[in-house]
Amino acid sequence: MSSHLMGVYNRAPVEVERGEGARLYAADGTVYLDCVSGISTNALGHAHPKLVQAVKDQAEKLWHVSNIFKIPGQEALADRLCENSFADVVFFTNSGSESVECALKTARKYHSANGQPERIEIYGFDGSFHGRTYGAINAAGNPSYVEGFGPRLPGYSQLVWGDREALEAAFTSPTTAAVIIEPVQGEGGARAIPEEDLRWMREMADANGVLIIFDEVQCGMGRTGKLWAHEWAGMTPDIMAIAKALGGGFPVGACLATAEAAKGMTVGVHGSTFGGNPLAMAVGIAAFDEISKPETLANVNEIAGYLKQQLHGLKERFPDVIADVRGKGLLIGIKLVPNNREFMGWARDENQLLVAGGGDNCVRLLPPLILSRDEAAEAIVRSISIGCRPKTCAAFSTTPMPARPPVRAGRRGGSTPMRRRPITCWR
Description:
The protein is α/β, with parallel strands linked by helices. It has helices at 37-40, 49-59, 72-83, 96-113, 134-139, 164-172, 195-208, 278-291, 294-317, 340-351, 373-387; strands spanning 16-20, 23-26, 31-34, 89-93, 121-125, 156-159, 176-181, 211-215, 239-242, 253-257, 322-328, 331-336, 353-354, 356-358, 362-365, 408-409, 415-416.
């Protein structure tokens, strides 16, 4: 049977029926440990009760109203974001890509408002990903994303990270508007930009009137163990794009900026029909309040420390499987020796462990920020049984797989059987 869906996704052969916490329940009864989290989106796990309640309460009152009216939820969430960041003002969007688009426009409008309309050049970096809209793909460093869409838009260039000379030339160019960077790359292979380099960028930007845009769509909102990834470097951007975890799975994003950087964003220069709608704001407030709690961030650091310790141990034991362990917080990249896509398939089909792909032959662990220690240990055990060679797993023969969750009642009554498969080894 043919599908009427546009064929732009390479979908896994899994039909998910429901989720709870760090578990996903497929229609065929298989239960997965979800270390993808909607690609860093379901930061509080699936069906978090406070988010569910926020949706229910707001849905009974008002879903949508035009931005020609005041929307109290926008003011409330904007207050939270500004009080807990560098920003003075916020524009609400529906996605990370839209937040990046707003950030790019804000940067160019800033220079135009300053009487320097020639300053339009935006510099991105190799391995970067900023979304799928036209501006976002031109700002990113993956040439495959602009293939077939014509030449790159004027005013967008890419740099190789670590080429200090080229970066310095970009900062000192009289046509440069901004640099856009992920403090911790996601799709590019979970590369954390050195903190001293971020601080140097801040100094160069200030000295040359250039704006810094941070794309924290994936690495922000508690993912690294601080609310914002750039906090680890002790510096701030001028503009920042966020989304994903901001809604805990509900579509909401935001572009944050200082009042100075946003001086060109006057009435009529930008807008969004659905951005900042009451339903999204209600969920965003609930998600932000939970994620920003000290105990949530403390859990991220504890679980991240445990996972990285265990993964480094696996790297030492299986150097023919794991080449590197990288990232920050619960944005963990595992650079593999064997093909990462094959690994992902085996993890999913043989051990019901869901991991995300990434550049540089990496897989990413992006579990919910509320992942428990037991669930983290389970993820490691499932990784072990995949990573060792067939019939040579004596080292792990005494390590039992954690018990799967008990049989749960299905949506329409009756039980949902848990599929049990034998533990097999990768490759």
